[in-house]
Request: fold
Amino acid sequence: VNAHRARKRFGQNFLTDVSVIHRIIDLIAPSEGEHIVEIGPGRLALTEPLAARATRLSVVEIDRDLGANVVARFRDEAHVDVVIGDALKTDFAALGGGQPLRIAGNLPYNISTPLILHLLTSAGTIRDMTFMLQKEVVDRLAARSGTRDYGRLTVMVQSQCDVDACFEVPPEAFDPVPRVMSKLVRITPHRDRHPGATPALEACVRIAFSQRRKTLRNTLGKHYPHALLEDCGINLSERPGDLAVDDYIRLADALSRR
Ligand code: SAM
Reply:
């Protein structure tokens, strides 16, 4: 496999640090009966230990050369199946067949945001997701309102999931060495509500954050009746980063009841 040259366009930075690999597997903590899905198995750094512990493992790999290698490696292991294709287009709910999925991966950083948003459309069938991402993306996912990192991605994800930032991983843990710090995150979809974002939530979050530095009077206030916004407890002289995730949820609920 190592004859394969890392492909930049697929965001390939392969994990080589064994102690980091162990920490990630301990964090995922696969157990009996679970169906794990790994996105981007690459050279199998996480795949081998996951296959050894999972009752069922599905992997999704876009790179045909790497994919062919995974197929060959697990040909005789019936509990491992390989999808050669684009995770952005994979129907994860169908992959789970109604059973809860645990998703994991050292994600290609160039597609991590759209991929997480795509996965959230299947949030109802996902038990949790454990990902290694560029540190800045984890900081945005886990941000609190009123901080610089808090934004549209934060609200879209935290409105549907609990987000726990875990540990950082330095560039030297990979080959080739990336230019950025990495960080593990655990994303756990709420069980009770928001099986996927509603169009109302997407719309109001997009409008509010379209101009981060403007007050909500100048963004939300131009699209929605002030009375409705005020009934939701929204202070129009605040900025989008000041509203809590619950404020956006309350607004989206009111908008979709209109
Ligand atoms: N899991 C391996 C590791 O930790 O060493 C590889 C991680 S590497 C950062 C990302 C992997 O995702 C690569 O194998 C890459 O080919 C694959 N990949 C990139 N884009 C993808 C996509 N859209 N769908 C599925 N896999 C993708």
In short: The pocket of S-adenosylmethionine is lined by residues 10-15, 39-43, 45-46, 60-63, 66, 86-88, 106, 108, 111 (CB under 6 Å). Residues 24 and 184 are 8 Å apart (CA to CA).
